[in-house]
Structures are given as C-alpha cells and as structure tokens.
Predict the structure.
Amino acid sequence: EADIYQTPRYLVIGTGKKITLECSQTMGHDKMYWYQQDPGMELHLIHYSYGVNSTEKGDLSSESTVSRIRTEHFPLTLESARPSHTSQYLCASSEREGPVFGPGTRLTVT
Amino acid sequence: AQRVTQPEKLLSVFKGAPVELKCNYSYSGSPELFWYVQYSRQRLQLLLRHISRESIKGFTADLNKGETSFHLKKPFAQEEDSAMYYCALRGNSGGYQKVTFGTGTKLQVIP
C-alpha cells in the first residue's frame, strides 16, 4: 500500500548519543520534508529535499542533518542528542497534492 | 517570505453551531493553500485544498486574495470535528517550493 513510514515511533535516549530517525515512502514522490512539532503546537520545517542528492535547510535552525541517497528514503540524523532535541519529528512527502505525513517519531532525550 | 497566521489557538463551539476557523497568509505570488486536520492520536492529514474547491466532511474554504484569507467553515459542528486544524501555504522560495504551516487552532465542539 502506498504510504509513508517512520521508525521508531517512540525513542527515549540519553544525552550525547547519536540517533537516526528513519522515513520511507512508497509513493514515488520526489519532494520530502522533515518538520519538528511540540505537542499541540505549530510545525516547523527543518529540512526538505527535491530529489536524490538534493537537501536544503528549512525555516527553523536544527542541529540535525539529512541525506537523500534514494528517492524513497530520507533519514534524519542527530550526531549528539541533547534534551533540547526532545520533540516530535514528522516526515512528509508530496507531489501535486499537499504533503502526506507519516505517523511521526516522538523523541525524548534524557 | 511566506507566512501563515491562525489568530485563534482555541475555538469552542456548541454542537450544531456554525464554525469558522480563520487563516490569513502573506505571500507575494499565487499561493496554494491547504487545510490539515489532526485528530487525537492520529497523524496529520489533508482536509482540503483551495484548488479542488471541494467540500470534505461538510467543511469548505474559499480563497480570498483581496483579504489574503482562507478561512475554514462548516455550517453545523459535530462532536467528531473536535481536533487541531492547521492552515498551510505552498509557495516558491529561492527557486524551491516550500510548505509553511500556521500555528494551528484547536476546535472543541461542546455536546
């Protein structure tokens, strides 16, 4: 089934650890996005990609990095997690329609 | 720069009352506008887009370029409409298309 998937759904990790949040879509979309959202709050665009080997930083400065080696895969990496990174991370992809969102990863850094 | 403003953080209405969720935007070109909804413990999902001019779950939204608004309306609120609603704008920025979201409005329908 065409969809967008994120793993893990929940992650609790200690300060200083390296983490990678996975995002995959099976819709063949070229455009993919990462948003950061605190519960019930606004979405902040932190990264976007227009296709393989294309990545740009979004409106909100983030210490995370992304890569786009394959069309369907858009992972986000934090080299050294800190408590300030605690948030929900939403991945999305789109073509003509508006972005389709994944279920999100809720990250807690202790 | 593109910007979306949703002035109300919370809107409470009684069941059966009309609903209007406000959205204003700032963008120099021709925008594409969307409404998204997030029900409790569910993922964010597209409700409607201005290009399609459709009604979804009884909701409609009209793009008013003069007032730079894209308000979401429903004549009779239902309890199942209680959710977070986000207005979004897709526009070109530096040669790329970006999608910018408003801060969201929580709609609470009182039985």
